[in-house]
Design goal:
Elements (H helix, E strand, L loop, with lengths): L4 E4 L2 E4 L5 H39 L5 H4 L2 H14 L6 H32 L1 H15 L3 H12 L3 H25 L3 H9 L4 H38 L5 H10 L3 H29 L12
Helix pairs in contact: 3-11, 4-7, 4-9, 4-10, 6-7, 6-9, 7-9, 8-9, 9-10, 9-11, 10-11
Protein name: NitT/TauT family transport system permease protein
Family: Belongs to the binding-protein-dependent transport system permease family.
InterPro entries: MetI-like, MetI-like_sf
């Protein structure tokens, strides 16, 4: 019998006798086609939003003074890139914010994983310290920004501290829960085979919690940037938050939205890099297949 595969709509339907290679090839083709469809929709929605925004601004359905327009924002971005801002080069301000966010992200992530795994493995310690962790976590982060600026000054330290706080609790909560959700049967089997506590943690607990940890890292970098920008907004001499503060004070709507777009681009770029790192580190996991619709 000939090996054949029919396609109905987006999902391939296979006849009896179809080989595994044909099934896999058809599935890969359907996935590739689905990616193109997703990208096309994403680009189309973005263009529709920008086009409607531009038309609404040109026809004064919205006040351009407050809402600006995509064209005005693009001009402001180009002016910043080519000529710099009134307070210095755009790349200098972007570099300041990225430095603050990256330092806070790294320190917060490492500390969050270590504390989360340690307390997840020690129930007594987690029960004792849980009330303090919940109390600190309940404090609004925006309230901490002026406190850090007052104690540490307008420099790097206060922004890093706020970025650290923003990242730590997100990573800690996921690492802690990931440890608690580890397969107890695998832990018991490892102990039966003579594994020490450190070997169980390294070879069983951490791989099991890795999905939880990376899930938190995907969003925690954006929190690190938020922390750095909020700190700069409260008090700083440079950074994207400083540009936002200047734009707010001068009613520069185009500059305000331009700074926000810069933050969005940087955050999406960091998310892409994080996905690449996760895929490389967790190659041992079986690939998850989704129904193509």
């Amino acid at each position: 019998m000939a090996n054949t595969a029919l396609e109905t709509g987006n999902a391939p339907i296979f006849r009896a006798g179809t080989s595994d290679a044909e099934i896999e090839a058809a599935a890969l083709k359907a996935l590739a086609r689905r990616k193109y469809v997703v990208v096309a929709w994403q680009v189309g929605i973005l263009l529709a939003i920008l086009g409607l925004w531009q038309v609404a601004s040109d026809l004064h359905w919205i006040d351009p003074f407050f809402y600006s327009s995509p064209y005005g924002i693009a001009l402001r971005l180009w002016d910043w890139i080519s000529e710099g801002t009134e307070s210095g080069s755009l790349w200098y301000h972007l570099g300041v914010t990225m430095e603050e966010a990256l330092i806070g992200f790294v320190i917060g992530s490492v500390t969050g994983v270590l504390v989360g795994v340690a307390l997840g493995r020690n129930k007594l310690a987690s029960d004792i310290l849980s009330i303090y962790i919940k109390a600190i976590n309940s404090i609004p982060r925006v309230v901490l920004a002026p406190i850090f600026v007052m104690i540490m000054g307008l420099g790097l330290a206060s922004k890093v501290a706020l970025a650290f706080i923003m990242v730590f609790f997100v990573v800690f909560a996921n690492a802690f829960q990931g440890v608690r959700e580890a397969d107890r049967n695998m832990i018991a089997n490892a102990r039966i085979l003579g594994a020490s506590n450190w070997q169980v943690t390294r070879n069983v607990i951490l791989p099991s919690a890795m999905s939880w940890i990376f899930a938190s890292l995907h969003i925690s970098f954006s929190f690190a940037i938020i922390g750095a920008i909020v700190g700069e907004f409260v008090g700083s001499l440079a950074g994207i938050g400083y540009l936002i503060s200047i734009a707010k004070g001068t009613y520069d709507a185009a500059g305000l939205y331009a700074a926000i777009i810069l933050v969005m681009v940087v955050t999406l770029g960091a998310e892409y890099v994080m996905t690449l790192v996760e895929n490389r580190i967790t190659r041992w996991r079986p690939q998850q297949h989704m129904d193509v619709q």
